[in-house]
Amino acid sequence: MIRILGIGGSMRPGSTSQVLLRRALATLAADGCETELLDLRALQLPFCNGDKKEPWPHFPDVRRLREAVRAADGVILAGPEYHGTVGGALKNAVDLLDFEHIEGKALGALVALGGRSNSNALNDLRLIARWLRAWMVPQQVAVPQARRALVDGEPVDVEVAARVDELARAVARAAELLRVRDDEAVTHG
User: Which residues does the UniProt record annotate as the domain NADPH-dependent FMN reductase-like (predicted)?
Assistant: First the structure.
């Protein structure tokens, strides 16, 4: 069974990115994937000091984050775009990871913007994924005017809903392909 982890990087109550991440994970659960959500609001993470091996004994949620990412076949990163880039909470969480946690995994990105749509945070997440030797799927979701994008927890625009579902399924497909590749390498290696 494919295991997909969602990391919700918004600190705002009622966050659009968090609602859409939950939708993505529900879609995958309905498709038969095992899913888990790490809501960064519920974790106590220190600011990264650049030492990716630091065990952070006074912050057990660092180990929880790292183990959840390591155990996942794919990860969906979701959060806000602030000042033209990835929000600080999500960026800090990713900074606490190292190659051993995320290398070779399928990743997807979903961001919510307060203003017009652009791809700044999505592009930055792609760069981060590449630096960590992970595989970012081509599908991505940017939701402009995010505070107006949902009504009663559902996307106003059916195209946004369809794109979230497509992103989720793309991460699961890529994760499955990467796992098959890794399993074959071990078998024939």
Answer: 3-146
CATH of the domain at 104: 3.40.50.360
The pTM of the whole model exceeds 0.85: yes
Angle at the Cα of 105 (from 104 to 108), degrees rounded to 5?
Answer: 135
From first to last of its 189 residues, what are the pLDDT tens digits of the chain? 999 999 999 999 989 999 999 999 999 999 999 999 999 999 999 999 988 888 899 999 999 999 999 999 999 999 999 999 999 999 999 999 999 999 999 999 999 998 887 889 999 999 999 999 999 999 999 998 888 888 888 888 899 999 999 999 999 999 999 987 666 555 555
Q: For residue 65, what are the domain limits?
A: 3-188
State how many domains the chain has: 1
Q: How far is CA 90 from the centre of its chain?
A: 9
